[in-house]
């Protein structure tokens, strides 16, 4: 790994800004069936890089840090459960979040000597370089934190904000809403010099768990399934530690690739022309997500090469807020995702029309959501657990081009780069809107160096001949 150091200046706990002098009582937030499904998954880790080429230690210490800490304290007033911990009382059928206004969020303050331009670039660089900038979320047998933050100074270059979130309380939409709320209040404090700025309705979270209906008790069933599976490998079947990840490998590289609006238009035309020739009557769902995933996954399968008979498993999530009956509020904070899985053969995706085949399969899967209950989709994942064959190539996504992460302005401009660091733990690809071109998509990958070089070749060459 490139030589650089990280100096930790301190670890603080930021608590909600409250004038209350009354007694502090502990509150409880239940975990729904959607939350329980993600209880054992590793944290989602994001990095936001902000470029300020004249950033001094004095300005960082006297302006940036105080504003970030004060606005975080104000933000936590709206997001009180995030200050607490997941615990599992002895007589309770499932874990829950326990919190009080006296609790707080861990914030690490650090300084890095890393090359800011390199670690925030699209170009391929060592994946492990981002790890020191990412805070560790503490999980143990007895409890699990909700969120951890790290603010890192790059002298005369800028700063980064690292965010690690527990998947049992945050889905992608919820995580993005929390960060945008923090940014909104921070910017408001500076722009308007307000002591107590407010959040707009779209950033005001709802923690009302009664909107999630679970008449069959799927939440407890999911608990039993997860901890039954872990009981085979652990002496503590009630441990709140997250599962071990695949881990990072020193030789892996991280890179960002872009599909422009024009690229996506050409890819859409390519699929439509193929099915016109086949005289297919299928009505295709060719969203930006479908086109992006189909193209990227095919390039990844080709880059891996090898056995054409190997199985390829494609997994992705869908937001069910508007698909539930009745639909739940768009500002609902928590998990509301269903996970879908496709099984394909590598050889089919390596064919000349592999992209078109992948787009068709993804299109059909998404159309099938209209007739599939969320509980059914999640239960299917448990049925598949442990049944994936050795040598299977697993492909999945993290993030979304709809989240608008590049709108996250704390008062010093939009981010130069946003990364989902945790894709180095689970072999997924990250998705975000293009920061340079309206309608485009940024795709982040972490691959072995040889596979990364092959992927880049397939990705770029494929767009030339679209």
From TrEMBL:
Query: Does this entry carry the keyword Glycoprotein?
Result: no
Question: Protein name, please?
Answer: Uncharacterized protein
Could you tell me which InterPro entries the record lists for this protein? CAT-like_dom_sf, Plant_metabolite_acyltrans
Residues in a coiled coil are 257-284
Q: Which domain of life is it from?
A: Eukaryota
Q: Where is the signal peptide?
A: none
List residues traversing the bilayer. none
Matches recorded under Pfam families: Transferase
Task: Give this protein's Gene Ontology molecular function annotations.
Answer: acyltransferase activity, transferring groups other than amino-acyl groups
| Gene3D superfamilies per the UniProt record, alphabetical | Chloramphenicol acetyltransferase-like domain
**Keyword terms:** Acyltransferase, Coiled coil, Transferase
